[in-house]
């Protein structure tokens, strides 16, 4: 195999290039280490419109990986990234078509940026490179490369869900988008359901099935070591001391309407109302870093969460106990690992998620001899692999409350049995096995 060329909307920042802390950079570590590699995408910088035609690719070499980045203009960032990728495709793929605000000009900018990326990457390619494209920002990218004469093998992986055709067809030019995707040699999604949805869309548009499931994982050995080391961190000791012997329930999600956070708060409220014996005797820590905070839908979501948390704390709290500890700043990854290890239960209740690696990180962080309980939404991609979690429908507050009560009173023998099976699932499907399986499939010879 030639070089691995990774293409994503955003390339890791300079600090993450040397010490990957999460996301795609961590997932791809093993694959990138195997030989000379190139990672291409947006720099994260915006330039003035008058600089549009003078932009060049910047490159930085870190060990065996070349990071190649290109800037976007302000109008490209707005139309391609903010409005079309995150204002149209993101809600649609998370089954929230009602949040789409379609403007044809944004779609044109989305296609133009994909063509621009393709032109800039073409000049960096070698004939034997294998190209791996990631996520919804780049659905038409392979077709843009093919139109420039690129013959290399090109694979695509979608990290978020893919909706059924009955919903997908609400996107103007949905057929054109799926037609462009025929230029990929291999298309991967997180779950069999998502692959089935995409293949049904292909067939409805007159194409053959192309999508396959390649579930993603974490590096569980590394995360378990981080969690174990985190037990000795001063901040983890501070959290433990503040609990005063109470069990800890933890939730970790970036601010997004797909994560089911308002529903989760209502489920916790139902728990306090229906099981008053837990009042004052449990601590719920919700860590929710703000993302896309300048977008109206996210501002409204944050306002809703702030108000709901305040109402619950005001109604159920006491002078020495706050029902919800609600943080909107990010917490370093090594601290999160220590917090997970300390927790007695995790609430992972998205309304829709491609996979959700928080669920897997929580399991990897647990003490084998005394694990906490995972409460997991049935609509997270991880649920297909983690049936021994306490599975819930996040739209039902009482179901969440029942699961919380069960998690906190669960006999140790049951926790051990569930924890053992969950650990097996997390160690069976890892970031390394995901990358290996996808690249093996992409490397296969196919008929012309």
From TrEMBL:
SUPFAM superfamilies: UDP-Glycosyltransferase/glycogen phosphorylase (SSF53756). It comes from the Bacteria. Pfam families: Glyco_transf_20. InterPro entries: Glyco_trans_20. PANTHER family: BCDNA.GH08860 (PTHR10788:SF106), TREHALOSE-6-PHOSPHATE SYNTHASE (PTHR10788). Belongs to the glycosyltransferase 20 family. This is Trehalose-6-phosphate synthase. It comes from Acetobacter thailandicus.
